[in-house]
Write a structure and sequence with these properties.
Blueprint lengths: L5 H53 L19
Length: about 80
């Protein structure tokens, strides 16, 4: 994990706790979670859009339907 040992990670966490205090850490975690959620949602939306676009390009366009004037039922007045 980035070449860090367990002791170095604990030291970083302790320094982080000292600098920001125990009241700010939950706010950081909450904002980080919201940011990750938004990023995943945006990535999912983009992936869905690309899949939809590629599937519509693979299908040939539908031929226009021509109707005969004689086969249409006439409206009675």
């Amino acid at each position: 994990m980035f070449g860090l040992s367990g002791g170095e990670i604990i030291l970083i966490l302790v320094v982080f706790l000292i600098l920001f205090g125990s009241k700010k850490i939950p706010e950081f975690a909450q904002s980080l979670g919201k940011g990750m959620r938004e990023f995943k949602k945006a990535a999912s939306d983009i992936q869905t859009e690309i899949e939809t676009e590629s599937s519509t390009k693979k299908q040939p366009p539908a031929a226009p339907v021509q109707q005969d004037k004689e086969s249409k039922p006439e409206a009675k007045a």
